[in-house]
Structure prediction request, 408 residues.
Amino acid sequence: MRTRVSARPASSNFLSQWTSRASGALVSAPLITPCIVTSESIPSTASSTTSSQHPPRPDSVPAEQWLRRPGTEAALTPLEGFNCSAFRVRLPSGQWLPALSEAPDWAALTARPSFYGNPLLFPFAYGVAGSRLRYAGQEHPLAPTRWQRVSHGLVRDHAWSVERSWEDNTGSHVRATISSEGDTQKLAEYPFPFHLAVTYTLSGQSLTLKAEARNMGDAPMPFGFAIHPYIPLPLGTAGTPATARPSAELDEIVHCDATHVSADGPSPGGSPPPDLAPAQGAFDLRVGQPVAALLAAQEAHRGRSGLFLTYAKRATGSGPRSGGLTWSLTSPRLGATIEIEASPELWGMVLFAPNEPTPVISPVIGTCLPGFLDYPDDPQRSADLGQLELAPGATWTASATMRVRFDR
Prediction:
């Protein structure tokens, strides 16, 4: 049985995220030191742009708008999928800690593959088998996005419109929207018209995203949603190929409250096994696993470097969800932890890292697992993988918070 969302009043709240990174030769850096961002490189006020060209910035990080609070700041790129291209918190030492990998320039941010910031994945995450959506007895060929792929939805590949930015006693906020209604190109990429709004809120050492999707069509819409934050490895760097380190030199520890896992990587069709196994041993993140040990365990299991681990938080391997995921990465060296806490709608995760040396690690946290749109003749399998349906005129909401904690 598919999970259907019926109509309910729309909320004004929405979501926050991160982006991608450019390919290139991975070069080991010498000494690991925190990445320093100088005050001269940062504009003094938040700004937005409606120009079709990226504005020049004194800060090399791609940004069209900034949110700032004492000791923390976030950069946003509405023209590039409304990515959060930087989220920084000042360390007790006075230096800035990048919580997201930061592209050195616009070309790197828009390259494919790209591993910077936090992309928003909607109306689906992962791929669709054969680039053809089969749903409700019909088959829809999906046009590739600008990266010539049918993967991770379409909203990360199009410009958004900023509705407003403001400050109040709860923090600094910016809200942007994207719609596919009446847009021939977007409807070729996904044939169900929708409206998605996202609000980022920066408060203290936390960046919260709230997302609201609305079905603008006259038929139910299948969908999924995920965030894809890229976290620098090692922490204290910008997470670029030039700062990559051999895994044996990493001290970071990963925690997550996911209960079930598959370490087999993606199947030829992209989906995990029908039943995920209870998390245990080297892949049980509830007890904390060193990143270096996790990379070694996956390479021993799959015979290739990098990470592609499928996780779920649920009562049984294919049973009901049991709340939103919480994921964290801790650096004992820096005494700092980056944590992501998701709302109950976001229960599934693929923990991804590119091949060694690895400059980033990315928890893809969302409503679904790979292959969730690939089983039109097996409603139970679709539901287990997280396929949702949004009724005509209905809205759906979710949220996630990324925060930085200091342990000393």
